[in-house]
Design brief:
It contains 14 helices and 17 strands. By secondary structure, the protein is of the alpha+beta class. The strands form two sheets. Strands 1, 2, 3, 4, 5, 6, 7 and 8 form an eight-stranded mixed beta sheet that branches. The chain has an eight-stranded antiparallel β-barrel with strand order 9-10-11-12-13-14-15-16. The mean pLDDT is 94.
Length: 500
């Protein structure tokens, strides 16, 4: 039977996404592993895995993490002359206990795990089996120099192994893996960003990506040589399974619980799609008692967009949509856009809302009601520094024709000068029939709709209203929506505002 290793690579706080993947791989795909290895931030997930936690429990620990809990400023000196910017006191006294970490259970675990930590005193990587793990070694495994102090253990100085390995493929090979399953969240984007913090983590990306993927390519070359009848470097074929993503949280600086939960949920969705694409069967995860129901807080705002669409035109590029609009006929819509449950809305990668109102155009006999349409706000593209908005509105023309308005906004930056145009321009098509998401429909018209400044500043901006069990919950709902909205805007346009 093939021996399977799980590689839980580092990635700072981005490994919350990794936890979402584990929810699917462990609970829904019901994958089992003979060995698991963790480095840097991945050691948090490895500790929980070795303790025997379900994937859902690991993911929930990240979903529920107070982003301010790990933050503990080092006051014993003036930075940059102090030992570190932060201390690890809160990690020890608050984060690990809140996750239910039990080192005795981990040391006795039947789940074999290896933890990577760098021994600075001996200038060597040490790979610690879970049977020898301690809290000190766990803290050392995530102690990035400058940000956190090193840890003294038995007279030696230890810190994060990221500069040597952020995903120890060599350990998996040495332990006889016939299959390696790895989750990679360190960015591989070709984007240089100025500023001290950015460059610190770009150095980590340089080292981590180079080390990991150089070894990964060696395994691929080994497999190719064996397949062609030659002797491979490792003497056996090693099947490779990699799930990687650009994760929209910072490695270290994150102050939004909602953003963390969204990244976890994105890991769940991506892992399910990844498994289905590889015909890996998924089962419902282990059942847990539903949390006590509580009244939901909803948020609604009104949006109007106006423009023109031309019949008989099927556009595919921005220029083609604009060209169609130049000889089109008027069309507008007026929508009440509702996040029925603000909590679910801000933590879901789809950010889907319900849209009700009307579409009005002489092409379709005047005003036509819209009911139970959808608007998705600031959905991550493959590159999470770029977003989309999607509209799908079902209506019936005066002559009885069933139609669907679909539209998208491309929000890609990089300059703040593009913010207004990109967030207010909807590239629009009318489809024949009521066409659900994921289904193809016949295009009967194309064009462009926009939010006019007077409609935004004198109508939409003052149209926000909330419903909830209390004034506090309604204010919280508005604040969380606003934080999500402006956080997404910053993702796209903020990097150009100046070095960090």
């Amino acid at each position: 039977m093939a021996k399977r290793s799980l590689v839980l690579a580092g990635g700072g706080l981005k490994v919350c996404y990794q936890a979402g993947v584990l929810q699917v791989w462990l609970d829904e795909a019901q994958l089992t592993f003979d060995h698991a290895d963790g480095a840097s931030g991945g050691t948090f997930n490895l500790a929980m895995y070795c303790q025997g936690m379900s994937g859902k429990r690991i993911a929930d620990n990240w979903r529920n993490l107070d982003p301010f809990l790990p933050v503990d400023i080092n006051t014993s000196g003036v930075w940059p002359f102090s030992r570190s910017l932060f201390t690890t006191d809160n990690l020890r006294s608050k984060v690990l206990p809140s996750w239910g970490i039990d080192w005795q259970t981990i040391r006795q675990s039947p789940r074999l795990g290896t933890f990577n930590v760098f021994n600075f005193s001996k200038k060597q990587l040490e790979v610690i089996p879970q049977s020898q793990m301690t809290e000190d070694l766990q803290i050392a495994a995530v102690s990035l120099p400058m940000w956190f102090p090193p840890v003294e253990i038995n007279g030696d100085t230890y810190f994060d192994a990221v500069y040597i390995t952020d995903g120890n493929l060599d350990e998996a090979v040495k332990r006889g893996a016939d299959e390696i399953w790895a989750i990679w969240t360190v960015s591989r984007k070709d984007e240089w960003r100025d500023g001290f913090v950015n460059q610190y983590f770009q150095i980590i990306e340089t080292v981590a990506d180079t080390n990991f993927f150089t070894y990964w390519k060696r395994i691929e070359a080994n497999n190719q040589r064996i397949a062609s009848g030659q002797q491979g470097e490792f003497g056996r074929t090693i099947a490779l399974h990699l799930l990687e993503a650009e994760v929209p949280v910072h490695y270290l600086l994150n102050f939004s619980r909602d953003r963390m939960a969204e990244a976890v949920n994105q890991g769940v969705e991506d892992a399910r799609a990844w498994c289905r694409a590889r015909n890996i069967q998924l089962q419902p995860g282990p059942s847990t008692p539903p949390p006590p129901s509580s009244p939901k807080t909803s948020l609604t705002f009104t949006e109007e967009m106006k423009g023109t669409v031309a019949e008989g035109v099927s556009a595919s590029t921005h220029d083609e949509y604009r060209a169609a609009a130049q000889h089109g006929k008027p069309l507008m819509f007026h929508l009440d856009v509702t996040a029925v449950d603000v909590d679910a809305f801000v933590t879901s990668p789809a950010h889907e809302t319900r849209a009700d109102g009307y579409i009005e155009s002489p092409l379709y006999g005047g005003r036509c009601a819209v009911s139970n349409g959808t608007v998705n706000l600031f959905v991550n593209q493959a590159d999470p520094t770029k977003k989309n908005m999607f509209y799908r509105l079902f209506f019936t023309a005066a002559d009885g024709r069933k139609l669907t308005l679909t539209g998208f906004k491309d929000i890609e930056g990089p300059s703040f000068t593009l913010l207004w145009n990109e967030t207010t321009t909807l590239y629009t098509q009318i489809l024949s029939g009521h066409v659900a998401a994921g289904q193809a429909g016949t295009v009967v018209a194309s064009g462009v709709l926009i939010i006019r400044p007077e409609d935004f500043f004198f109508k939409q901006l003052f149209s926000f209203r909330t419903k909830g069990p209390s004034i506090a919950s309604r204010l919280e709902g508005l604040n969380r929506f606003g934080a999500m909205f402006f956080g997404k805007v910053w993702d796209v346009y903020g990097p150009q505002a100046g070095p960090v």
